[in-house]
Specification:
Layout: E1 12-18, E2 33-34, E3 40-55, E4 58-64, E5 69-72, E6 77-92, E7 104-105, H1 115-122, H2 130-156, H3 161-174, H4 178-187, H5 189-204, E8 223-227, E9 231-235
Antiparallel strand pairs: 1-6, 1-9, 2-7, 3-4, 3-5, 3-6, 8-9
Helix pairs in contact: 4-5
């Protein structure tokens, strides 16, 4: 019998307090980016704000207030805007992939053509003091907002090519990592789906032995207040 004991559907969960740093356009919030293989969802648990999204279909802004549930599929550029203490529970498909790099920031094109240039602009200093990491996170956010505003202007002006070019650049940046991602997917979401298939097969045979193998898990955040792309993160090992 195939078993899987991760979170339902092999999702990842974190708690996010969205940055309140003002950007060049006067809005406070996080770093615009997209995911290449993972859908993402927000459950709003406090404060208010919005999520701006940019797709080939256009620009959209969705209000976020407590109780709201918003999700989007791979390829949707998204930017969290913090109006008043916005806090969300983040649900991410394919647990493990987001942490493995399934995100590309909307940095200007000059930062996207060379993997080393992109890495230098997107990576925070992990062993520096907090003030240094905060400055780096804010500079990274500002650079991504710069690129995002250009993409938004092009899409709203009827020119799809800059966004399409960003998609191509993002795919090229992550291509070397896809074998590693496949392994993570096989151990996570694929195994979870296979476990459900095995359980259905057993039930069709009139067997219920897998129910005796039930387990209960609980966990507290393994880290608090890290500098994420969109805000300060409390993360779980799952």
């Amino acid at each position: 019998m195939v078993t899987f004991e991760g979170l339902p559907g092999a999702v990842a969960v974190s708690h996010l307090s969205v940055y309140d740093w003002p950007a060049a356009d006067g809005l406070r919030g996080g770093t615009p980016h997209l995911h290449l293989t993972c859908s993402e969802g927000y459950v709003v648990v406090g404060g208010s704000g919005s999520v701006q999204t940019l797709t080939a279909s256009g620009f959209q802004e969705t209000p976020l207030t407590p109780g709201a549930l918003v999700w989007f599929t791979p390829g949707a550029v998204h930017r969290l805007v913090n109006e008043d203490g916005l806090r969300v529970i983040v649900l991410m498909q394919n647990s493990g992939l987001p942490e493995a790099g399934d995100a590309v920031l909307t940095l200007p094109p000059r930062c996207l053509a060379d993997p080393d240039v992109y890495r230098a602009a997107a990576t925070l200093p992990g062993d520096a003091e907090e003030a240094v990491r905060e400055r780096a996170a804010r500079a990274r956010r500002d650079l991504a907002v710069e690129g995002f505003l250009v993409l938004r202007e092009a899409v709203e002006g009827g020119d799809p090519e800059p966004l399409a070019a960003f998609h191509r650049a993002a795919a090229a940046l992550v291509r070397p990592r896809t074998p590693e991602w496949r392994t993570r997917w096989e151990k996570g979401a694929a195994t979870a789906a296979a476990a459900t298939a095995a359980q259905l097969d057993a039930l069709e045979r009139g067997e219920a032995g897998h129910l005796a193998d039930a387990r209960v898990h609980s966990e507290h955040p393994s880290a608090h207040g890290g500098f994420g792309m969109c805000g300060r993160l409390d993360v779980y090992r799952t």
